[in-house]
Design brief:
Number of helices: 5
CATH superfamily: Response regulator
Distance between the termini: 10 Å
Low-confidence stretches: none
CATH class: Alpha Beta
CATH topology: Rossmann fold
Strand content: 15-25%
Largest sheet: 5 strands, parallel
Number of domains: 1
Structural class: alpha/beta
Mean pLDDT: 92
Shape: globular
Order of helices and strands: EHEHEHEHEH
Number of strands: 5
Radius of gyration: 13 Å
Length: 122
């Protein structure tokens, strides 16, 4: 299947996403922040990046912007539970920056599975 990089500072969320993607047959790599995620992209290019928006340091918007420059064709799914700014505004900005799918936390298995399948064309 596909290699998916999950970037999220929330360990519980990374674990949940890893389990869902693993059940789908995907290989999952994890990063705890945007900087680590971009380093992993440079070392071993994933087929898909799934990034949280609200993270310390480089946030998901920064990650999406950097990926549009470095790997314009790399698909990105943005995920957000909100924060100081409403999550729908954060996800709208992510879509404008180039995220091909946006998902609000909390989400159900089928929402994530459907988005990943659509993005990977499977």
């Amino acid at each position: 299947m596909a290699r998916v990089l999950v970037i999220d500072d929330d360990e519980e969320h990374r674990t949940l996403v890893r389990q869902i993607l693993g059940k789908m047959g995907h290989e999952v790599e994890e990063a705890t922040d945007g900087a680590q995620g971009l380093r992993l992209v440079g070392k071993r290019r994933p087929d898909l990046v799934l990034t949280d928006i609200n993270m310390p340091g480089l946030d998901g918007h920064d990650v999406i912007s950097a990926l549009r420059v470095l790997h314009a064709d790399m698909p990105v799914i943005a995920v957000s539970g909100g924060g100081a700014i409403a999550k729908d505004e954060l996800l709208l900005k992510a879509a404008k920056l180039g995220a091909v799918e946006v998902i609000m936390k909390p989400f159900e298995f089928r929402q994530l599975a459907g988005a990943v399948s659509r993005v990977l064309g499977k």
